[in-house]
Amino acid sequence: MTGRIGRQSHANETPRARRIREAEAREQALRARGIDPYARARAELEAGPRAVRPRRPRSLKRVLLTGLVIVVVVSGFGGFLLWQRIAAFNDAVSSASSASSALFFPLMGSDRVNVAVYGYGGEEHHGGSYLADSINILSIDPSTDTTTIIPIPRDLWITGQPELPRNGKVNEAFAVGYQKGGIQEAGNLATALLASVTGLTIEHWIALDFAGFREMVDTVRGVTVNNPTPFGYTWSEDRYHAGDFDAGSFAAGEIFLNGDDALSYARTRYTSVPAESSDFARSIRQQRVLAALRTKLGGGGLGSLGPGLALMDALKERMGTDLSAIDLFLLSGHLGVDRRIELGEDVILEATINELGQYVLVVIGRTSPSDYGPLHAFLAAGLAEPIATPVPTAPSTP
């Protein structure tokens, strides 16, 4: 009877009462075994509060190491993204591998590095879309770190060369190559022909269409050039002969050019000033625009990174080359022209009319229509001449 009452009372007790009862039971059990259940608590109370061990400060070395790791990780990730962007540009414009470099060792050597540069109409210009509108050779002397530009007149008549088996003007080779295999074949074929008729070793090339030239200038928000001769211009040969220069004009002195203006300034050949209507004059104007563009882009380093990336975006669909993006970067440091070698009329070329009645230029002193030996000798002699170093003007004395 007593056991049943005890079990019923335990069943009805609260959780708190149960914990108290169980604690008292444990205490009684310990005392029955001769153990003081509160001995440890009394000892700790008598000993006083436990000393708190001071926290060891984090070492400066560990902090610096952690910071360095963070910088390396962030830089590495940023570098990876930058490389991905450069590689994508390379794949879009070049036949070379993005990790390759054909110019690295040659630009540290002693032999000249020659690169052909072509400007052409492209898809936006239906008439003569892939005739080379401008042809230049950049000849870099690594031993003196100087660059000579050799403009090639597009009316130079080509005879007896396999690249143009039916003969033709030198600018036709680019179009013939394009018909055979697109922009890469255009550059390869035109450059092989150029090497043959000039006698220079030319292994690499860059080609840019009109829209790319315009977008380069617009990317840097325009350029300012010094134009020494004012002139009006027209795009119509008939208006040119009538003296009607309806397309616009360029004043003398410093002029600001946006992309469209720069393209007109560099391309126009029907001008109110006869001297500005030649291929030679056009080449000089193109050089002024490119020099101003290079100034806008800066001389490299982090300050040029943003404009350089924007320029890559602008040229992604407008450019072709057999050089890698790495080589283009290396070449950009050699675009400051120190000298021009002109293939002038009555100097090495003479004007005549071909069998089709076209105005053409042929080599003076040739022994046959396919003899380009005099041109080889002319360019070799010109490149062998040292580039004059400007002499500083002595300060005037009072």
Provide structural commentary.
- The chain is an alpha+beta fold.
- Helix content is 44%, strand content 17%.
- The protein has helices at residues 2-12, 15-32, 39-47, 60-93, 172-198, 210-219, 237-242, 259-267, 279-297, 305-315, 325-332, 373-384, and strands at residues 113-120, 132-141, 146-151, 157-158, 168-169, 204-209, 223-227, 231-234, 248-250, 253-257, 270-271, 319-321, 339-340, 349-353, 359-363.
- The strands form 5 sheets. Strands 12-6-1-2-3-13 form a 6-stranded mixed sheet. A 3-stranded antiparallel sheet has the order 9-8-11. It has a two-stranded antiparallel sheet with strand order 4-5.
- Helix 4 packs parallel to helix 10 (305-315) and helix 6 (210-219) crosses helix 8 (259-267).
- Residues 391-398 have low confidence and may be disordered.
CATH H level, superfamily name: LCP protein
What is the CA-based Rg, rounded?
40 Å
Number of domains: 1
**N/C terminus separation:** 136 Å
Helices, by number, come to 12
Residue share in β-strands: 15-25%
Keywords:
398 residues; alpha+beta; Aminopeptidase; 6-stranded mixed β-sheet; 3-stranded antiparallel β-sheet; 17% strand
Short description:
This protein is an alpha+beta fold and 398 residues long. It is built from 12 helices and 15 strands.
Strand and helix layout:
Layout: H1 2-12, H2 15-32, H3 39-47, H4 60-93, E1 113-120, E2 132-141, E3 146-151, E4 157-158, E5 168-169, H5 172-198, E6 204-209, H6 210-219, E7 223-227, E8 231-234, H7 237-242, E9 248-250, E10 253-257, H8 259-267, E11 270-271, H9 279-297, H10 305-315, E12 319-321, H11 325-332, E13 339-340, E14 349-353, E15 359-363, H12 373-384
Parallel strand pairs: 1-6, 3-13
Antiparallel strand pairs: 1-2, 2-3, 4-5, 6-12, 7-10, 8-9, 8-11, 14-15
Helix pairs in contact: 4-10, 6-8, 6-10, 8-9
